[in-house]
Amino acid sequence: MTTPHQEELLPATRRALLHRIAVAQSEGRAPSLVAAVVRGGKAVWTGARTSVEGHAPDERAQYRIGSITKTFTAVLVLRLRDEGALDLADPLEKHLPGTGVGGVTVAELLAHGGGLAAETPGPWWERTPGSLRPGLADVLGERPMVLPAGRRFHYSNPGYALLGALVEKLRGAPWEEVLRREVLVPLGLRRTTVRAEAPHAGGWAVHPWADVMLPEPLEDLGVMAPAGQLWSTAGDLARFAAFLVEGDERVLGPESLREMRTPAAPAEAADVASGYAYCLGMEIRHQHGRSLVGHTGSLPGFLACLTISVADDVSAVVLANCTSGPAPFTVAADLVRIVAEAEPRIPAPWQPLREADPAALDLVGQWYWGTSAFVLRLSADGLVSLEPLSGNGRRSRFRPTEDGTWVGLEGYYAGERLKPVRRPDGSLSHLDLGSFVFTRLPYDERAPVPGGVDPEGWRGIG
Fold it and tell me: Could you give the residue ranges of the DSSP H alpha helices within 234-327?
């Protein structure tokens, strides 16, 4: 099984990738498994294993992707936010009244922080027709809230049914139609559909104690579709993974995608310990010392994972057609690791700034917060970074604003203002960062250090 770009990986790397999915399919007893690896914005490898002689799937074969659907739904909601149709802090009631859970915010629904029940009432919704739950009241039930809103992460499938209904209300069209028009068509995801289109895999349950199989029902999920309905392929999800990193202004820009990849729900202690966090329609896991962002998915008969190492510029997709078996995230994380370690990312050549701003250049160099030494650097992207010289402590990048200040982009200083303060003669006195004074010398007596500086200055012990 090859792709036009497969030759870009070394033969040893390709063999290691094939070995990993072969082990996963064999030990996981999956009827079939297909995978893809993305680097530099395109698929550089695909592979497949199957129990059916001569019928191995390729990157065009559809599988159900389960909850990876949620990431697509989240993209639609972020588009509405970017257009000004809603704010993530808006209560649901403002746009979709009458649900009975209208106090929950849009952001809380996206991040599974709204306290809604994990599943719908009644029979197992993933294995029964959506016609049994024709309306939102049917998927919410009499007790839709099981926890206080905003207090903790609690995965909720009905929450994404509400987000799908929100998209329909604000767009005036079915979720399926909006998704196709605003995401699938612009990104060229022609094999991602709400209902199966040949060629597609059948869903199977593999007996836990015998090498026999049972076909799983393929149900239409109805109003629960925005939580897990989609069918897709390794090829389409490879393109979607590239979009989730790079963005596409026709759909969603890089800044909004960075926001989607940022943790947004209060994690439980066990999640903190395991390195798991939920973002806005995406989840972060830590494996092999890497931060991996994406989503897993499952429906009866299918397992799926899309995961991305932004730092390594490597993504992986794994799809299998069994209810349980290979662990898709573990396999996908291993595919990322194999490529990242065997063929590490080659950085782009260093380039100087095209034009240096004298005011920005005046800021660079060593600074002190009290007696702690920091350095401020100006990079070719026009940002400045503040880093502790000891290697330990608070650090952040800052972007310039029109009023001459700089806004923190991450960590403790995210959203905080760094303000250069000048003396009457125009020389730089100090930096004010959220009331912290950074000076060129430790406790510089020429700067307004809070609490003042002892007039006798530095001294020895005698």
Answer: 234-246, 254-260, 269-274
